[in-house]
Amino acid sequence: MHFYPEDRLAVFIDGANLYAASRGIGFDIDYRAMLAYFRARGHLMRAIYYTALVDSEEYSPIRPLVDFLAYNGYTMVTKPLKEFTDAAGRRRIKGNMDVEIAIDMLEMAPHMDHAVLFSGDGDFRRLVEAVQRKGVRVTVISTIKTQPSMIADELRRQADQFYDLADLAPEIARRFIEPRAPRSVPGHAPGHASDTAPEQTTAEALPAALMAPVPVPPAAPPAPPAQAAPRAQNGLGRTRTVTVERGGRISGRITPANPYGDVPDTSGS
Fold it and tell me: Do 126 and 232 sit in the same domain of this protein?
């Protein structure tokens, strides 16, 4: 990926698409490392992260990530997820951020030299063309190393340069995980992940500090079974039997004892 040191850079991140691509390759993203990577390659003006949020619940799994990015140098653009029922009666969730990305990129075009788009959505081909006519170079980052590919062919052809996310992984990976095949979305070009269910932007993308396991206290040992003490003679010529029951309760009985000990029967009867 080629940058000029004097470039004014702006990074536009389709959150759902980037998450699906990184999971398909098999790594989690270190967003601080990503920001440092682009700051070292030009004058970074903005790094904007776009995602939809579930506002109908008290807790959204993506909210900690949104707060983390907002406090660590990213500009956040969010909107509520919309729930609807399709013609077949199936429940669908819509969280498309394409319009927001297009508006911001066109407004910033006169003030930047190089735009970096993290998305493989073919719907952005016309946007990339419009920005290029304003004199802006556009780099698209997605991946062709998943099955299916996460980038539409027409977007890859339109971009000034395409960079595979798998080649960027050594610079921005927080940890490597088992790859997971991206989910296809009916009615959209390859690489479109903005209208998928919210589980594609879950806490799996959070920093390691937000995912520490909760310690579990050890289980209490089981109570010992009831056991009988050995028989013993007291000073009154009686045998005392003591039993210790579960829970510490003590019970017993006293029976007459043979003062001569155990003598075998020789009566012949």
Answer: no
169 vs 26: CA distance, rounded Å: 9
> What is the C-alpha separation between 124 and 153, in angstroms, rounded?
11
Q: What's the length of the chain? A: 269
- Which pLDDT score is estimated for 243? 56
Establish if 109 belongs to a structural domain: yes
Q: What's the pTM?
A: 0.67
Residue-wise pLDDT for 214-223, tens only, equals: 444 566 666 6
Q: Residue 227, Cα to own-chain centre: how many angstroms?
A: 52
Nearest-CA neighbor of 192 among 200, 184, 201, 204? 184
**Residue 232 belongs to what domain range?**
227-256
Strand 232-233, strand 238-244: pairing: antiparallel
SS3 category, 142: strand
Q: How far is CA 214 from the centre of its chain?
A: 16
Residue pair 47/75 in contact (Cβ under 8 Å)? The answer is yes
| Residue 94 shares a structural domain with residue 61 | yes
Q: Nearest Cα to 164, choosing from 52, 27, 42, 258? A: 27
Q: Amino acid identity of 41?
A: R
3-state secondary structure of 30: coil
pLDDT of 36 > 80? The answer is: yes
Q: Is residue 67 part of a domain?
A: yes
